[in-house]
Amino acid sequence: MITVVQNYICTCDKRRDVLLNNLPKLGEVFKDIPFVVNFNDTINLEIIYDSYKKNIKKLDFYNNLEKNWALVTLSLLEKVKTPYLLYLCEDQVLHSTYNELNNILNEIQELDIDFTNLTKINKYSKSTFPGYTEHNYGYSYKGQHSPTGRLSSDCIVRTDFWRDRLIEFIQNKDHCPHRIPYPHENLPNYFEGYYDHSIGIRKFQNLKCYIPKQHLFIEYTDTLQKHTYV
After folding, report:
1. Sequence ranges of the domains in the chain
2. What does the pLDDT look like over 211-229, one tens digit per residue?
3. Half-sphere exposure (CA, 13 Å, Cβ side) for 26?
4. What pLDDT, on the 0 to 100 scale, is given for residue 225?
């Protein structure tokens, strides 16, 4: 059903250690799920690659050093054979069990969801939002009712929809109708900044969206030097 896709660098020792501690957990909970990974640097390459080989059973690992996040990520999608993908940043630490993950994935599939938001669960996973429909493990809603205007890259999403968004971004990023806070091609922030405001998630009015009731991941924040909820 799903493939994990990653495209990142990791040059900070603390973030490297978080990643290395997280990989055995990912390998256990995502044991039947393929990973397509690009490590976009040479610093820490060997130790990180060795840990992936040790812990991730179904792995396609690349070391494409081109400093263009969108183009490289688009090339990774050519390796994805599943209808859904989970885009996972290296600082997202697993916060769920095998059964919890599969309950959410099964509900996403049963509801024929297009896009699942994995960020700010405490803020947006509430029954009080208009347009929400409650289910066993999360809430569904249409894109036009999204409580956030941004199309986050921390998501579970239909592979074809995400491929189309990357292509659209690559073709139109220099003609965005609003100011992008981080217009740097090697950062996914540029992609997220593009899909905001008038061309954000609410543009896709009938997009079938979902947010889980619980955190699948928590984010490691260097400035706080601890795990914090997204």
Report:
1. 2-228
2. 999 999 998 765 433 333 2
3. 31
4. 34
Q: Say whether 164 sits in a helix, a strand or coil.
A: helix
**Structure-token pair, residue 82:** 């599943």
Question: Taking a C-beta distance cutoff of 8 angstroms, is the pair 86, 36 a contact?
Answer: no
DSSP 96-111: S-HHHHHHHHHHHHHT
Angle between helices 13-29 and 98-110 (to 10 degrees): 70
- Closest alpha carbon to 88 in 35, 20, 44: 35
**Superfamily of 2-228 according to CATH:** Spore Coat Polysaccharide Biosynthesis Protein SpsA; Chain A (3.90.550.10)
54-84 pLDDT per residue, tens? 999 999 999 999 999 999 999 999 999 999 9
In this predicted structure, what is the pLDDT of residue 221? Answer: 65
Helices (H), the chain: 13-29, 45-55, 69-77, 98-110, 121-124, 159-172, 188-194
Kindly list the distances between the CA atom of residue 7 and the CA atoms of 36, 72, 99, 179, in Å, as whole numbers in the listed order.
9, 8, 26, 25
Residue with tokens 């993908």: 85
HSE, CB side, 13 Å, CA atoms: give it for residue 187. Answer: 10
**Strand pairing of 226-228 and 217-221?**
antiparallel
Distances (CA, A) of 224 to 14, 216, 219, 221, 228: 12, 20, 11, 6, 8
Assigned token pair, 194? 């593009």
